[in-house]
Amino acid sequence: MSERPWPVVVLTALGAWLAAVPLFVVAAMWLGGAMREPVAALVLGVVMLAGSVAVLRSREASLFGEQLAVPVMLGALALVAMGLIKPLEWRGTAAALCLITLGLGMALPQSWMRVLLGVAAAQLALVAWSTDTLWMSDASGLTPWVALHGLVVIWLGSLRWGQSKAASDIGTGWVVSTLLALASWSGMTFMLGQQLGRGDLHPLGPLSSWWRSVGGGDVGSAVLALAAGCWLAWRWLWLRQPWCVGLGLVLGTLSAFMPALGGVLLVAAACLVHDRRRLAMFAMVVAVWVLGAFYYQLAWPLATKAGVLVAAGLVLAVLAAWGLRQTQAAPANVDADLPAPESRDRRGAWSLGLCVLAVLLVANGAIWQKETLIRDGRAVFVALAPVDPRSLMQGDYMALRFATDDVIRRHDLEGREDVPVTLVFKRDGQGVATPTRLHRGETLAGDELVIQMVRKHGRWLLVTDAFHFKEGEGARWAAARYGEFRVNAGGKALLVGLRGDKLAPL
Length: 506
Description:
The chain has 506 residues and is mainly α.
């Protein structure tokens, strides 16, 4: 088959999907009654599967026909599921569909289709093993930790016994899906949780109580991380150095606090050993995600999490300096498959320097903006109603609710995300501001100002919905009655503190 330009393929695929929609509608109207019967749905699904596979395997099939066969195959799988759901229930149906997708992957010649089918097969296996749905833990199934790492074990086995191109493509999709599931199960990573409002995301549910009570996930994760280090040291002699051993011990210790980290590191090691560099890079990105998600783990106090990360950072800094000195003084014997450490020193130093510079620029830029707003912004006080004086994740805090909800509801803005929301506040002589209306570009009176609202957790908020303070100071801040803001001319606001009755400092 001749190479086709990707824009042509994309446009043809779009046309095929658009054509498939009315085709499915007509088929549903014609065969609607028959498809309600499990046997009829199953037979029709099998026939459609056979037809789509025949088209995809044909060397004479047109590009449009090939792309049309993809939605037909998906529809056929849905019909097969309808036919199996009653006798096999959800988990049995998921297991059957997993085997079917694996068989389809081995039968199809298109590499991209095999990868996508591998992704689907891993997710179906996960449903069959651990849960009745993707969103909650099922006590009758395997604990999520065991199920997820079972997928890792299957993929590791495929590296040894599945050497064909088809098996390799399916394995790629399988391990990508597994890594994404591990990242999702770990929760939202650091900073993104606050920005996206999903810091408690755990789609597959937390570790079951009995599994956590015996430390299964924690110990297992540490063992997998150490196994990954031993595998790499066995493969490349230059890693058998004291500073490398120290690095492995640090990662093993961190994995004991993060049940998903060990499996991710093992996948990264396997990818490096089998020279699958892109997958290894993806696994390391997932590892960074899991490390960031440690910030949101409720099982550990904030002080413990901070201490673990600070200690790990200091040890890693010492090991990095030690390793750099040893490498420069006496380079180790390096396997021919990898470039020598000295050949990577210059490139690595530049990369590290650029990363540090980028982090500093972003962090200090944000700090400078906030410091400017605090220094030059107009002082404004808004009445608040503090609720729920305790955070399980981040120490003590006050959940804030400002007097803006009435204006938001009056203009029916709760579900709107298409336009920015800016409110007009009327400011009295003391600086206390009361929201009056939605700003629509009109000229403001002398005692009025505008403040931009922030979208978070599906709600429009005045800057934030929480004020954090030092643990043990709940009684002090319980007397808060106003939020103290600094607002610039453009309506950008920043919460800088809380005030008590009559704006008394707390």
